[in-house]
Amino acid sequence: MNLSEISIKNPVFAWMLMVGMILFGYLSFREMGVSQLPDVDFPTVNISVTYAGASPEVLESDVVDLIESTMMTVEGVESISSSIRRGSANVTIDFTLDRDIDQAVQDVQTKLAQITRRLPKDIDAPTVSKTNPDDQPIMWLAVSSESMDEKTLMRFVRDQVKDHILTTPGVADVFLGGYVDPAVRVWVDEKKLNQYQLTVSDVMSTVSQEHSEIPSGTIENDKSEYAVRTLGEVKAVEEFEKLWINRRGGSPNYTPIALKDIAKVEMGLEDVKRKSRVKGKPSIGIGVRKQKGSNAVDVAKAVKLKMAEIQKGLPQGVELGVNFDSTVFIEESVHELTFTLVLSAILTALVCWAFLGSWSATFNVILAIPTSILGAFVALQALGFTLNYFTLLGLSLAIGIVVDDAIMVLENIYRHFEMGKSKRKASLEGAKEITFAAMAATIAIVAIFFPIAYMKGIIGKYFYQFAVTISVAVLLSLVEALTLTPMRTSRFMSHTEKRSKIGLMIDKFFEGLESFYKNSLPWVLDNRWKTVGISLLFFAGSLLFIPKLRKEFVPAQDQSSVMIRVKTKEGSSLAFTDKVVREVEAVLSKKPEIERSFVSIGGFGGNEATTAVFFITLKEKKLRDKSQQELIEIYRKEFKDIKGGRVIVQDTSLGSFGGRGGGFPVEFSIAGSNWNDLTGSALTIMDELKKTGRFVDIDTNFKASVKELNIIPNREKARARGVSVAEIGTTVNALVGGPTIGKFTADGHRYNVLINLKDLSADQVDRISNIKVRNNRGELISLKEVADVRFEDGLQSLTRKDRLRAVSIYANIEKGVSQQMAIEEARKIAQKFAKPGIIVMDSGSAKTFQESFESLIFVLVLGIVIAYMVLGSQFNSFIDPITVLTALPFSISGALMALYLKDLSINIYSMIGIILLMGIVKKNSIMLVDFANQVRDEGKNVRDALLEACPKRLRPILMTSFATIAGAIPPAFSLGPGAESLAPMSMAVIGGVLVSTVLTLFVVPAFYSLMTLKNRNNLEE
After folding, report:
1. Which residues, listed in sequence order, are joined to residue 790 by a DSSP beta bridge?
2. How far is residue 755's CA from residue 822's CA, in Å, rounded to a whole number?
3. Where does the pLDDT of residue 110 fall: very low under 50, low under 70, confident under 90, or very high at 90 and above?
4. At what angle do helices 501-526 and 528-542 cross, to 10 degrees?
5. In terms of pTM, does the model score above 0.70?
């Protein structure tokens, strides 16, 4: 007893099966998270090292090289990169995607513990953390005020805003842009120090000894226990100035001096190394990062609700607003895809009605859509998938596919019913006859996705969700077609419904098509070699479209957001960068299409005085005349006039999946051992790239050497005067570097106490030269007497990749230039102009582009091999699968032609569409071959079998093909958010199905008659 028979005999079971799939599918749909891309763990571990004062060269040789060498032995390491700056270094370890991140962290910590003793003694203990490059903030908020000073605003954001946002459900972390921690500042006057014969070491010792609170234990008796505390810390900032300096150079100071006599103490801020503004107004940015697997849209809504609560208690003059919200595009694109799903279902239903001429029959078919699509959500939710681009793309394309099995079964049942059989008998026999072809067609689609298990890289993870989505939907449609469809026909099928005038016209049209097809088949079978030859020439000719099509990783999308980077000359101050940024702001303020702009100057972590990043939110696409990409081109031209810095305008939609790399479409690295050769080659390569006229916004990650003030102890003079090198270093660090010399508690918070020379600026080198240090005899010696103070060129940073020194080069591409062509040209230029011994390596988007297309082509080829194996097993033939697969080349021809006519590129989405075609177009040839085999089993020869079988299969073939095309039309011609990625995939499907359907009807019979054995039993014999 097969599935169809069980359902026909147990109709209530079949109805409950359908209702259950729809009901639980809807409940699962409601529980699923929403995100732009699938949630994928990127196993990345970061080791942060601090070695105060160490040069990049020292850190590289003494620390980084040792750590990298050790980490290369950890299991699953894919690549290691390092960024080294003066006094600090970061080693980033990227593991293979299948590596468990928590286990990787443990392994890294274990290896690090083994080499701790081999690291320099003065180094701070390295810290290990796991990071995910894909966990970028989903939205940026901004707090600004014209009534509060900076210090008050910082404390307000920390105490009244940050923690409230952090406790919002779904929020994992928040980042503060432009925030500087409040601190107690001790501003020392060096003239007063000299007047009182003091050094900064005396001040530091005073704060350490006179402002301290040490736990003092407990006392107890028979009845009670008491804690003992020595309350030695001052309770107010003003009390710092009343501390007495009782010792001078370690000896008693018989005339104590108050701290206020030689320094000013105030509650201020730590060194301001970053700033942020919203539309030109000083502000603090709050970046919100969602928890893994949570619904990005829901998290953003929850944050906005929390903001509404906070705004009720905001002081007058303080504003809190959303500056950048990526979930707006996510929500709009998901709504667009949902609308596309509904529209696809409606169009598919109309196609079915046009072919069937009966609303009851059409209703019977389109019930497969909610059953399969909603039923798929049960599996997707159980697997932990989200509603994202790849799952929704899969469902939107599945709309036209899931009805195919129901159409095949229904059409065959109706054919038996029109022979005069009863509803029950027609349903039983019709379903049984078509079961093999339906199963073969469904398995053919699912089989094309088997090779994804072997795909490498991030695209494999994303494609996995797409493949599972379509596979589940198609398998459920097969179950529906073999259970619910025959059950419903056995009870509700009738001859009574009449065709409308439109229906009669459609019937007449298809009768004409069938007549034409019947008359054409004999000629095709008489001219088999000509037919096959013409089709091969057609396929070969279609390949000429490939060079004419642009090749890129992803198409540019209008996401209503732009990122602008500002870079000033190395060595520039934060104030100078701020001045350049204000010029950019002045240009942006005149742009009516900009809704909000947020800029962070000095980097989000500080210490990057030469950089600034703008987040620009544009008005909705329908509210502006120009697209995002057109505006980017305009901005690039206008920013060329900005003096003092380079302005790079970035299209955020073109970044690589996963967030790795700089987000540029062209990105590569050159690696070697000699840093000067690397930097020289990088500058030459960048100049050559600029000359081609195909690259814009050319940039690099290396920082040129800049002037630095070097204090070089003269050991002979220092020894003669009894001054230690350590004393020189401590004194300079205290007055210039601003070290932490204590902690201060106020309002439930703990603040750093920092010491600095008062009013020191870069042009006051003489003040540093005249700083006094104390020798071992208690005398004060000027710094210039024991050290040379001069400006010299110094290396700011070093970068490494896979244990070699490396420099990365990035670039955007001119409008209309193919990404693949740009990458290839950049690679050739790099290899040509790089000095001997330097290696050129792809990275970022360029590397992802290469890996993804190699993987997809591999999937395409392996999918065809697997399809042959599956079909061979199903048909028990070595020849029939080849006949079925003859439809595949023509689907590629149709896809290429459609992409060319619509001026679309070959990208990751169109490639996925072509792979999907490999499964779809086999359905038509399977129906022809299977039915021809059935007729031949009745004793007819090949020619007669084809002449009988092919015309009978014409209507279901056309019906399934047009249903697939109808389902793909809405996404192909969508104009809403995300349409740029929907169109190439859908157009590839439309063109491929259309062309392959037409050619399959003629080429497959010709090829079948050439290749099929005269007697089907010969194989068994």
Report:
1. 710
2. 52
3. very high
4. 110
5. yes
